[in-house]
Design a protein that fits this description.
The relative contact order is 0.12. The protein has about 190 residues and is an alpha+beta fold. The chain is built from six helices and eight strands, in the order ααββααβββββαβα. The chain has two domains: about 50 residues; about 120 residues, endopeptidase domain like (from Nostoc punctiforme) (endopeptidase fold (from Nostoc punctiforme)), CATH 3.90.1720. It has a six-stranded antiparallel sheet. It has a two-stranded antiparallel ribbon with strand order 1-2.
């Protein structure tokens, strides 16, 4: 009887230990993932000059990091060469799962205007460079920085730079109606 009691005691202690370990493992994995995410944010913050402690969209900054340095090519839409609107379209497709229009003027028809001081990460910035019409587009990252494809290739620039400050037209946020329309067209394509 004593041996049976000891066996039951050992059996239940092993089960309790296994259960305790399986309960703490997911917590440890979550903590590790949070630490990794924090390190990624710190890294991007340093190299991009954007305070990432306030963002959770690491996917956006990873995409930007992967494309920085890609050469500019008018009409281009790949890492061999890309223009500003194709880059913005690709970013929105890969980061936000939205298929936006191709030209900067057409993209502007999809947004509601946002004042420069109200821009948020992921908003789109528009410029009228040597023109009365929109000729350039980029994506706002925060801290007055935006990513764009221009003559120097895909770069991160500052809206406060004299050049961009002079030609800045408006910021824009994708309209809810277009978000809904895009989601519906995606659902229709899946059927």
């Amino acid at each position: 009887m004593k041996k049976i009691t000891i066996v039951f005691a050992l059996f239940f202690s092993v089960i309790a230990t296994v259960q305790a370990q399986t309960k703490t493992a997911p917590v440890q994995e979550v903590q590790k993932a949070d630490e990794d995410k924090s390190l990624i944010k710190d890294y991007f913050s340093q190299i991009m000059g954007v305070a990432l402690s306030t963002t959770s969209n690491v996917k956006l900054f990873q995409f930007v990091y992967d494309w920085v340095g890609t050469p500019y090519r008018f009409g281009g839409s790949s890492k061999k060469g890309v223009d500003c609107s194709a880059f913005t379209k690709e970013l929105y497709s890969k980061v936000f799962n939205m298929d936006i229009k191709r030209s900067s003027r057409d993209i502007f028809t999809m947004v509601s205007p946002v004042k420069k001081e109200d821009l948020k990460e992921g908003d789109i910035v528009f410029f009228k460079i040597h023109s009365t019409q929109i000729t350039h587009v980029g994506v706002y990252l925060g801290n007055n920085r935006f990513v764009q494809s221009a003559s120097g290739g895909v770069t991160i620039s500052n809206l406060d730079d004299d050049y961009y400050s002079h030609y800045f037209y408006k910021g824009g946020r994708l309209l809810d109606s277009f978000k809904k329309e895009l989601a519906e067209s995606e659902n229709a394509q899946k059927k």
